[in-house]
Amino acid sequence: YATAGADCSIRIWSIQKRPHNAVDVKIKDSKQLVDSLPVHIDFLSELKRHSAPVNVVRFSPQGDYLASAGDDTCIIIWKLLPEMNDHCEYEKETWSVVHMFYGHNKEIYDLAWSPCGRYFITASIDNTARVWSLSEKACIHVITDHTHYVQGVSWDPSGQFVATQSSDRSMNVYPYTKKNNKIIFSSPKKFTKLEKSQERLSFSPDGGLLITPAGLNKTDMSSEEEDLQNCAYVYARNMLQSGKQPIGLIGNYPKPSIAIRWCTTLFKKRSNFPSAFALPYRMLYASATQDSVYIYDTQQTRPICAISGMHFAPITDLAWSHDGSILMFSSADGYCSTIVFSDQELG
């Protein structure tokens, strides 16, 4: 795992589940209290090159690179070195800078890698999103269709779309093709009438669904009053090029949703259980609001569980482990929370 924040640094962690017998140990002192936690957390390294708060960190799909970006308008690509630096007594890993990208003129809020790990896209409050090539070490495309802050970006795992979300109350989906090792973007399909406060949208791991936070749902259609609840919109892949409205919505939240994160593992469907989506498997995703996290799967519309009251400041982002057994979420209060699921608890 990687964390970052207002102290301008990035920290790398190892988080591993403990065996059940270690969790059930009787607590007699502070060491045993730490040993009784369901996860073993080990600090690995601290990365310092940013000169302002870091807003986003993302590992590449293959895990060989780490990208970071923030208020200093710089995107830094990091790589783990095979050998340790002897000068760092308290660190167990050494990371080096591969390249530093510049192009945005205001703070960067979000970043997403392409499935191949050769490209990435960034979102900035300079009202643009930029696509970068790691091999060319340059910006290869600038998206200028939004009229306000671009706060969220997501790259289709199937390699056909990128999506951007802005506080101009719109989401744009850009089809693209590859020709002669170049990415060629087409005109976007625009989806409007979203809530103004928007953050991080996300494609499902199979690319079949796109969920965007910051939706609004009128709970009482018979009422003339604006009785609106916060929700997230669900878009089907086959509708992204037609600009059609969402096929469904998730949640009636007291506060706006700010981020969606999918678990990359595909789970077996529950038998004798109706499915909300016609899929041969089951996928998990988490939806974060400003003060709560809701966990769903694609076989039902109601959340599997909800977590709230964990932080004193708004939640900022989410991250799953690859096997779906651990979910971590961060907060503006400077702390992270870890949710651990037992074996087979989620399927």
Fold and architecture overview:
The strands form 7 sheets. Strands 12, 13, 14, 15 and 16 form a 5-stranded antiparallel sheet that branches. A 4-stranded antiparallel sheet has the order 4-5-6-7, with no helix packed on it. Helices cover 3% and strands 49% of the residues. The chain is globular and about 55 Å long. It contains 2 helices and 27 strands. The protein is mostly beta strands and 347 residues long.
Topology overview:
Blueprint: E1 2-4, E2 10-17, H1 20-23, H2 30-35, E3 39-47, E4 54-59, E5 66-70, E6 74-80, E7 95-102, E8 108-113, E9 119-124, E10 129-133, E11 138-143, E12 150-155, E13 161-166, E14 170-179, E15 182-185, E16 189-191, E17 202-203, E18 209-218, E19 228-236, E20 248-253, E21 257-267, E22 282-289, E23 292-297, E24 305-308, E25 315-320, E26 326-331, E27 336-340
Question: Tell me, what is the CATH class of the largest domain?
Answer: Mainly Beta
Report the principal-axis shape: globular
Instruction: Report the CATH superfamily of the largest domain.
Output: YVTN repeat-like/Quinoprotein amine dehydrogenase
Uncertain runs: none
The main sheet comes to:
5 strands, antiparallel
Identify the notable features of this structure and list them briefly.
347 residues; mainly beta; Methylamine Dehydrogenase, Chain H; 27 strands; globular
In short:
Belongs to the WD repeat HIR1 family. The chain contains two helices and 27 strands. By secondary structure, the chain is mainly beta.
